[in-house]
Write a structure and sequence with these properties.
Order of helices and strands: EEEEEEEEEEEEEE
Strand content: 35-45%
Shape: globular
Radius of gyration: 17 Å
Distance between the termini: 42 Å
CATH class of the domain at 38-198: Mainly Beta
Helix content: under 10%
Oligomer: single chain
Number of helices: 0
């Protein structure tokens, strides 16, 4: 059974207060809520109070706002948030955060349109992927090469786990060199999500707007990424 409910707050144009309730199995149910300004730029949501590592983030003033930060799954199994949420209107261009090759491009019910890019091995020998979820549209197919800053799709709210228009963006890395299971439905085994704020090309907590040239200088990341949503204004 799936229940999907939306409400709009008419007191402030562009603001959307949303509740999503999903019951996948009779024994599992949860609710997600968010209040975001889809037309806002440069704002950064705080980390959850239980986050063990809170990285100060300086978002460019013309970048779509970060509405939800990374939160690890707790040791007792409490649900985390294993990526960044970037809020913007439906149709905002979504860009490859680094050069690579499309590993998978597909739709599935919970996270909607999804693209996974393989960026190969970094200087530490660990393979890295970036993941883009809830897309309104996908513009690249499996196996396609992509360059940094190339548009790969548009931001949306597809999938039952989306409660407002946003990009859910993840960085996945091998736990150790060669640990990833190659291919098939178990491609993610041996991988782990890490806070994207650790990997910005200009340094931790310093996202820069995407471009099609070399990565900005100054960072020490083994996966130097730029902002995956198009900057405006």
């Amino acid at each position: 059974m799936h229940r999907f409910e939306k409400r709009r707050d008419s007191r402030a144009r562009g603001w959307r207060a949303v509740t999503l309730r999903v019951a996948v199995f009779p024994v599992m149910a949860f609710a997600l809520s968010a209040c975001v300004n889809l037309n806002d730029y440069g704002a950064v949501a705080p980390y959850h109070r239980d986050s063990p590592a809170k990285i100060p983030v300086q978002l460019p003033p013309n970048a779509p706002s970060i509405s939800n930060q990374f939160l690890e799954v707790s040791r007792d199994g409490e649900k985390g948030h294993l990526g960044l949420d970037i809020a913007a209107p439906v149709g905002t261009p979504v860009l490859a955060a680094a050069a690579g090759r499309v590993y998978l491009s597909y739709f599935e019910p919970m996270y909607g349109n999804r693209i996974i890019i393989d960026h190969g091995k970094g200087a530490d020998g660990r393979r890295s992927f970036t993941v883009y979820k809830h897309l309104d549209s996908r513009m690249v197919a499996d196996g396609a090469p992509v360059s940094r800053g190339q548009q790969i799709g548009t931001l949306g709210e597809t999938g039952l786990l989306s409660s407002y228009p946003h990009l859910h963006f993840e960085v996945m890395r091998e736990k150790a060199p060669g640990r990833r299971v190659m291919g098939g439905s178990n491609w993610w085994q041996g991988m782990m999500q890490e806070d994207p704020n650790l990997f910005w090309a200009a340094g931790p907590g310093r996202p820069t707007c995407a471009n099609t040239g070399p990565a900005p200088a100054g960072g020490q990341s083994v996966l130097p990424i730029t902002y995956p949503a198009a900057c405006g204004r």
